[in-house]
Hints:
Layout: H1 2-6, E1 10-15, E2 18-23, H2 25-54, H3 61-74, H4 83-90, E3 94-96, E4 100-102, H5 105-136, H6 151-156, H7 184-195, H8 201-232, H9 238-247, E5 259-262, H10 273-293, E6 319-322, E7 329-332, E8 338-343, E9 346-351, E10 353-354, E11 357-358, H11 361-373, H12 393-403, H13 407-418, E12 422-425, H14 437-450, E13 462-466, E14 472-476, H15 483-501, E15 521-522, H16 531-545, E16 547-554, H17 559-564, H18 569-585, E17 590-596, E18 605-608, H19 613-627, H20 633-651, E19 674-678, E20 690-697, E21 701-709, H21 717-735
Parallel strand pairs: 8-12, 12-13, 17-19, 19-20
Antiparallel strand pairs: 1-2, 3-4, 5-14, 6-7, 8-9, 9-15, 10-11, 13-14, 16-21, 17-18, 20-21
Helix pairs in contact: 3-5, 4-5, 7-8, 10-11, 10-15, 18-19, 18-21, 19-20
Amino acid sequence: MAEAHQAVAFQFTITPEGIDLQLSYQALNQIYLSGVRSWKKRVSRMKNRVIKGVYPASPSSWLFVAIAILATMYMQSDPSMGLISKIQQHLPLRYTCGLHMSLSAQGQTMLSALVFSTLLWLSLILTLRLCLKLLLSYHRWMFELHGKVSNTTKVWSLLRLFSRRKPLLYSYQTSLPHLPVPAIKDTLSRYLESVRPLLTDQELKRMTDLANDFESTLGNRLQRYLKLKALWATNYVSDWWEEYIYLRGRGPIMVNSNYYGMDFLYVTPTTVQAARAGNTITALLLYRRKVNKEELTPSRVPGTDIPLCAAQCERMFNTTRTPGAETDVLQHWLDSDFVVVYHRGRYFRLWVYRGGRLLSPRELEHQIQSILDDPSPPFPGEEKLGALTAGDRCPWAQMRKQFFSSGVNRRSLDAIERAAFFVTLDDEEQGMKGDDPAGNLDRYAKSLLHGKCYDRWFDKSFSIVIYKNGKNGLNAEHSWADAPTVAHLWEYTLATDAFHLGYTQDGHCKGEVERSLPPPQRLAWDIPPEAQVCRSLAVAQALAADVDCHVFPFREFGKGRIKKCRVSPDAFIQISLQLAHYRDRGGFCLTYEASMTRLFREGRTETVRSCSSESCTFVKAIIDTLKQEGKTQKDISERLGCSQSAVSRHLSGKSVAESAAQPEEKPGEPGCEMKLMVTFVSSQVADDGYGVSYIIVGEDMINFHVSSKYSCSETDSRRFGVQLRKALQDIMALLSGDPKGSSKGSAQVQPK
Length: 752
């Protein structure tokens, strides 16, 4: 109860002698400092609103315009062409409030000139913002061939002029174009093209008839609805995508939706668990400070000055997905002064600010260590409470309404949901270690994905996991943002932890400790019978046990060598995945690759269908070439040249802006089930398919994450990993002019 007494600023007692008033000056000082911090944040928000409102100009540019106008008038010239005189005639320059006050003629002229300067300045800002929006609405630059740039694109390159002044995080938001509604005819045509290599002639004819019937009936009517929505909505599809794809899902979000991020593979900055937690928490809170102050530079298309939408950053911290009977709700709070820490079945509230200042990494390490040293056991039913967030959503919503709507449970749950983020101090060791680094890496990935199914709070926007040996990782909820946003956060965190904050020689955080810090507050629970917790845990454990996860770093070559072959690294990897799947399953399948639509305001992701007629032809050509011995390199180049360029064009950022009304989402139609999912999230969308994510690390390494289900006898993540390695090596050998260097026996096709 020590922290409770410290939180009381004053207390009084009525005695026979009168009222005995006792003030806690230390507590009052903490209240004062916290208030100062709160007001600083308000002032910062107001200042940022002004700066964003006038971008790409600056507030100080008003002074420049005003001085220019006044200087021109001083030289006996009227830059307003009579407008200043008209403004002077209509301004109420005389006031009577008991006293008669009026400005001199010179003062009236100066005030009118300032009003004209302000109006001129606002007009210039509107003109600049309109020009910026027009420039950002131009997208033909991405289809220009190297060395053949059109005049329109050359004019469009003036966009660089608007990027010379450093923007705030959200400066471009109102200038980004709205996502256009594609023509229904084009969408259906591209859909039919994507399923063409997967269907027989009879199946393709039936699908074509269905598409034509859909276009002439329901499709056109739904198209009008979408166009109507696009007229007034910021983005015609993102809110529906969030609602119906994520929040209305009633199954577990663990594994199915949540995804993970790993620590450095080969380096662990410290093996002290509390120290790694201290630095990681500090780095995350420093990132939050940058987001709140909008000091982050907006993300851009690599190699260009074109900004991407930053709307997803708004709900990064202090956000929780709360369950409902029919749909979940994303709740976001403007600020939070604490995080919630889970350790050995117990929950703690850890305050991260003291007197308006952020605790130092060493102080956070001290607080974390006190949690690790706390011997108290969990309250009855507390240990596995997190399983409610891992199971089905409806039972969790019912339990939340019935047992967590009031009292001590409500207060403790409220602390978790309002926390900046969630922290798990895991009592296991993970990472590439021991005599089986490959197997341990797979177990490390599974641990981050689902843990013990009750030691993560899967509803939080993200949770960080700190292992006993100092390894860390991240588990993120998907509905509020897509993986690239979280990836940027995690890259900043790892870099700040290792290279900016650092550690002492004995592995502890740097800095000093204020010994008067109140200890972390243990959250109390009055948990009802654990029947529903056990049922949710059983559902989650069955789901987790079925995940076949394989992670491997590919170090034979990376994007550096791929680019020397004059091929896009993404196109190279995509065709390698197609070849690997063909060898693994003896055929092709509909393939999903996620692409960003953040060139548009509030854009999220779109589907790239990387399995096409051209890619299938290319894969078969590779198989035939590897089967035939004695082929010259000239023959190989001539045979693969055309299909390679077609594949490159198909994989070079083309995506279909699909409307909500498409026949492809109907279950049971031939050839329409996604069996190969290539994305930032390593989870498959079909029970008999694969989920593959990859990260290009530097010039010489690519990390792959492959997942499938143990319950499917036709898939095996490690087997697919072997085929993927072979495919990468074979295609590189062909493109680099060394077909003999391809992997032996890799051209064999396994039967279905």
